[in-house]
Design a protein that fits this description.
- By secondary structure, the chain is an alpha/beta fold.
- The protein has one domain: Rossmann fold, CATH 3.40.50.620.
- Helix content is 29%, strand content 28%.
- The strands form three sheets. It has a nine-stranded mixed beta sheet with strand order 11-10-9-12-8-1-6-7-13, with helices on both faces.
- Strand 3 and strand 4 form a beta hairpin.
- Helix 2 packs across helix 5.
- The protein is globular and about 70 Å long.
Length: 249
């Protein structure tokens, strides 16, 4: 059984991003880029399913510029068997990515597609749901546990009221939550092995997909700075402040 995992190249979560001076976007020049943490969890889960004998092949897919090769090599070093890069210099928005992944799904026919629930750069949380709709597949989002047996996937997920367990007929789309697993550390020998694993490069045109953006970013701005706190001598002064300035009483 094939498992297809989508991974995205994003600004590393340790980097403090800065907005461009013209407000057109985030400045990513000379900043560290890495694999999206939620996608890293997705790769880890796919590799664990393969190690448990529930899957036979793990395919990592990324959409974006040529530098996404580095992200795919990380996925290969984690245990993916091969990788596919859909190379494009366009700004790839969630719907375009979902269409590109749908084209790959049609080509590869995986039984399970795993994605991170969202990317930490835009926090859209849309691609997995859009892919499931386009492919006509059942879906389970925010997964905290995945089990495969007899053509079905049992997915545990956390909801506002507690926990929920879903049974999905395969093929299906699953998006991962933080509590699903803890990704393994990538070792140097596996990094070297990853260089020899196959990595195929395609274009949106080759897949017959129009990846042109549908949305336009008008402006990007940093959040307003918080004002400094105020020390008050006693409770009476605090209540007076809340009444006069904050107007919450």
């Amino acid at each position: 059984m094939k498992v297809l995992v989508a991974v995205k190249r994003v600004v590393d979560y340790n980097v403090k991003v800065r907005v461009k001076s013209d407000g057109s976007g985030v400045d990513i020049a000379s900043v560290k880029m890495s694999i999206n943490p939620f996608d890293e969890i997705a790769i880890e889960e796919a590799v664990r399913l393969k190690e448990a004998g529930a899957a036979t092949e793990v395919i990592a897919v990324s959409c974006g510029i040529a530098a996404c090769n580095e992200t795919l090599r990380t996925a290969l070093a984690m245990g993916a068997d091969r990788a596919i890069l859909i190379e494009s210099n366009e700004e790839l928005q969630p719907l375009a990515v979902a269409k590109l992944l749908k084209a790959v799904v049609d080509k590869e026919a995986p039984q399970l597609i795993i994605l991170g629930k969202q990317a930490i750069d835009d926090d859209s949380n849309q691609t997995g749901q859009m892919l499931a709709a386009l492919a006509g597949m059942p879906q389970a989002t925010f997964a905290s546990g995945i089990e495969l047996s007899e053509g079905k996937a049992t997915v545990k997920r956390e909801v506002d009221g507690g926990a929920e367990t879903l049974s999905l007929d395969l093929p299906a789309v699953v998006t991962t939550d933080l509590r699903l697993n803890e990704p393994r550390y990538v070792t140097l020998p596996n990094i070297m092995k990853a260089k020899k694993k196959p990595l195929t490069t395609l274009t949106p045109a080759e897949l017959g997909v129009d990846a042109a953006p549908r949305l336009t970013t008008i402006k990007v701005a940093e959040p307003p700075k918080r004002s400094a706190g105020v020390m008050v001598p006693d409770v009476a002064a605090l209540v007076a402040k809340l009444k006069s300035e904050a107007k919450v009483l």
